[in-house]
Amino acid sequence: MSDTLASAEPGGPPQTAEPLFHVTGEHHPQNGTLLGFWVYLMSDCLIFACLFATYGVLGRNYAGGPTGAELFDLPLVAANTSLLLLSSITYGFAMLEMQRRRLGGVQAWLAVTGLLGLGFLSLEMYEFAHLIAEGAGPGRSAFLSSFFTLVGTHGLHVTFGIVWLVTLMVQLRAHGLIPANRRRLMCLSMFWHFLDLIWVGVFTFVYLMGVLP
């Protein structure tokens, strides 16, 4: 609110003093960023829910082409799943180091998390390239179109997560564990664990159920 002062002389023009602003508490809620990020994750959930529903409808439409049982290499996918789940654990170690105010430990575990994420993406790209080389590209059938869309969208999210992780490591190196960086670490933690949860659904619903006759 502002205070307005009238003119000291009767009948004279009103004079306005400099506005005085009174802030009695924190202007922005402390958890506003985390709440907003939760809203974003819920919207991302809706996107993946639509993709899962699409795959559920089209996942058996092979158009005379190969089926999931003929294409999926479960040992490779299991190894890929292990990399992503392990990266979630290493990110947890980074958060523990953040609580202890150990910048070096945070950076080290973030680097390990990023390398595991890159390993996951490398195996996924190898799988895609192998399927396309065998003539099982996204245009071969509705099953493969929905498969590449669902798995590719998740891989794109992991790619963005790695870019965010590298950017955050640069910010940590420049500014340390300031409150803003700690908040960013929390948001990335929620995002990374969310991707792990989505991948568990992909592994179960797409790959494990896909190899069933």
TrEMBL record:
Residues 1-23 are annotated as: Disordered. GO terms for biological process: aerobic electron transport chain. The chain crosses the membrane at residues 37-57, 77-96, 108-126, 146-170, 191-212. It holds the Pfam family COX3. Residues 30-211 form the Heme-copper oxidase subunit III family profile domain. Keywords: Cell membrane, Electron transport, Membrane, Oxidoreductase, Transmembrane, Transmembrane helix, Transport. One of its GO terms (cellular component) is plasma membrane. Gene3D superfamilies: Cytochrome c oxidase, subunit III, four-helix bundle (1.20.120.80). Its main location: membrane. GO terms for molecular function: cytochrome bo3 ubiquinol oxidase activity; cytochrome-c oxidase activity. InterPro entries: Cyt_c/ubiquinol_Oxase_su3, Cyt_c_oxidase-like_su3, Cyt_c_oxidase_su3-like_sf, Cyt_c_oxidase_su3_a-hlx, Cyt_c_ubiqinol_oxidase_su3, Ubiquinol_oxase_su3_dom. It is found in: Cell membrane. The keyword Ion transport does not apply. It is a multi-pass membrane protein. The keyword Cell membrane applies. Heterooctamer of two A chains, two B chains, two C chains and two D chains. Cytochrome bo(3) ubiquinol terminal oxidase is the component of the aerobic respiratory chain of E.coli that predominates when cells are grown at high aeration. Has proton pump activity across the membrane in addition to electron transfer, pumping 2 protons/electron. Belongs to the cytochrome c oxidase subunit 3 family. This is Cytochrome bo(3) ubiquinol oxidase subunit 3. The lineage of its organism: Bacteria, Pseudomonadati, Pseudomonadota, Betaproteobacteria, Burkholderiales.
